[in-house]
Amino acid sequence: MRTILAVVLLCSAAASVACAAGPSPELIASGKALAEAGDCAGCHTADPARPFAGGRRIDTPFGAIYAPNLTPDRETGIGAWSDADFTRALRTGIAPDGSNYYPAFPYPYLTKMTKDDTLAIRAYLGTLAPVVSRNKPPELRWPFGYRGLMRAWNYLFFKPGLFEPDQSQSAAWNRGGYLVTGLGHCAACHTPKNYFGADKQTPLAGSEIGGWFAPRLDGAARTGLKSWSAEDIVEYLQSGRNARSHASGPMAEVVVGSTSQMSDADVRAIAVYLKSLPSSRRETIVTPPGEAEMKAGQTVYAKLCIACHEADGSGSPRIYPPLPGNALLQSINPSSTLRIILDGAHTVTTPRAPNTGEMPGYAKQLSDDEIAAVANYIRNSWGNAGLLVTSAQVAKARKLH
Questions:
Q1: N or C: which end of the chain has fewer CB within 10 A?
Q2: 245 contacts 352 by C-beta, under 8 angstroms
Q3: pLDDT attached to residue 401
C-alpha cells in the first residue's frame, strides 16, 4: 500500500513540475508559426513597439471596430482567460463573459481550426510581454452596436465546424484547404459579401475592402488564377512579387507579416489548393472603350508610364509588373488599379526579395478624366479586357487618398 501511495505521490509531483514548467518550446514554436499563418498581429497590433496589444482600427461597412489586446495582461488582455475561453472565442465567436464578437474577428473561418492548434497559439501568446492596453469600444452605426443582433447573424450565416479533410485529395491539398478556408481566412477579404457582411455563395471571387479590391483567387481565366502556375503563387506569397504581379495595399501587409514567414511546405500547400479551384462565377462580358477614350489614355501612358512599363506593357518582371494578362488589372472592380495610379506603389521587401521598387503617385498631376482614360487604356490593351472606368469612380477613389 505504501509503495502504491509513493508511486501516486511521485506521479502527482511530476505532473506538478510539468505544469509549472509551462508549454514546451515545441508547442510555443508551433503556436508562433500558426499565429503568423493567421496574420494575427496584422489586426491586433496598432503600435509596432507593442505587438498584439490591440488598438488597431478596423473599418467595416457598418462602422469601426478596434482589435483587442491579446497579450497576457490579466486586466486588459487575455492573461486571465482559460484555455476553454480562448478556444471558444476563436471557434465560436463567444467572449468569456458570454457576449458575441463581431465577424470582423474572423471566427466564421477560425471555427475550422483544431483544438490543438488553438491551444498552441494560446501557448505562444502566453510568452509575450504583458501590456496594459484597454480595449476600445466599437464605433458602429445604429443599430449595429447592439451585440445581441449577432445571435441572429450567427443563426443565419455562421456554420461552426472543423475543416473536413477530403480523402480523395493529397495531404498537401488538405493542408492548403485548412489554411485557406480556416486559419488563413482568405475569404474574409477575397469573397464577396452580402448586405449583412456575410460571404456570398461565390467563394474567393474577389471583393472590395478598404478602398482596394482583393482579386479573385479561383480559376477564372482572365481575372483569376488560371493563368498562374503553382510556382507563381508560391513566389508571390513568399516574396510579394512574381513575373505576373506585385503585392500592394493590404495584401502587401499580409505578405510581409504572414505568408513570407510561413514554411515552404505550407505556402506550397496553399498554392496546390488554390490551383485546384474552379471558377465560382462567370467572367463579366466587356465592351471595349471607344477610340477617343483609348487614344486619350494612350497619350497619358506614353507621357508617364512607358519608361518603366514599355510600349508593349511588358515592364520588367519582378521590378515593374507586366500589364498584359494581369489578372488584378482586369478585375471587375478597378479600385486597386486606381489606388496605385493615385497613390503610387512601393514594392515590399522580404528575405527572398530584398530589392525595392517605386512607382510615383499621380493624384496631383492628373485629373479624374486623365486617370480614368489611362486606366481604361491599360485595362483594354495588349489583349486585356476590363470594364469601363469613369471619372466618377476616380473621384470617389481620390477621396480616400
A1: N
A2: no
A3: 65
Closest CA to 71 of 94, 38, 49: 49
Closest-CA residue to 234 (of 200, 184, 274): 274
Angle between helix 83-92 and 115-125 (nearest 10) = 120
Amino acid at 24: S
Q: What size, in residues, is the chain?
A: 401
Residue 12's pLDDT is: 42
- Name beta bridge partners: 59: 64
Distance of alpha carbon 159 from alpha carbon 92, whole angstroms:
9
* pLDDT at position 21: 66
DSSP of 76-133 = TSSTT--HHHHHHHHHH-B-TTSPBPPTTS-HHHHTTS-HHHHHHHHHHHTTSPP---
Query: Residue 57 and residue 37: Cα distance in Å, rounded?
Result: 21
The topology (CATH level 3) of 21-157 is Cytochrome Bc1 Complex; Chain D, domain 2 (1.10.760)
Could you report the per-residue pLDDT of 93-104, keeping only the tens digit for each?
Answer: 999 999 999 999
- Angle between the 115-125 and 25-37 helix axes, to the nearest 10 degrees? 100
Amino acid at the residue 390: T
Give pTM, 2 decimals. Answer: 0.92
Q: How many CB atoms lie within 10 A of CB 194?
A: 11
Is residue 313 within 8 Å of 323, Cβ to Cβ?
yes
Query: Residue 151 CB: number of other CB atoms within 10 A?
Result: 11
Count helices and strands in the chain by DSSP H and E runs: 17, 7
Angle at 225 between CA 113 and CA 35, to 5 degrees: 25
Query: What pLDDT does residue 80 have?
Result: 97
Region for 52 from its dihedrals, namely left if φ exceeds 0, alpha if ψ lies in -120 to 50, beta otherwise: left
Lowest mean pLDDT among 10-19, 22-31, 327-336: 10-19
pLDDT value at position 329? 96
Residue with cell 474574409: 188
What's residue 248's pLDDT? 92
pLDDT more than 70, % of the chain: 95
Contact in structure between 338 and 397 (CB atoms under 8 Å): yes
Query: Can 21-157 and 291-398 be said to share one CATH topology?
Result: yes
Average pLDDT, integer, range 318-346: 95
Query: What average pLDDT is seen over the chain?
Result: 93
Say which CATH architecture domain 291-398 belongs to: Orthogonal Bundle (1.10)
CATH architecture of 171-275: Orthogonal Bundle (1.10)
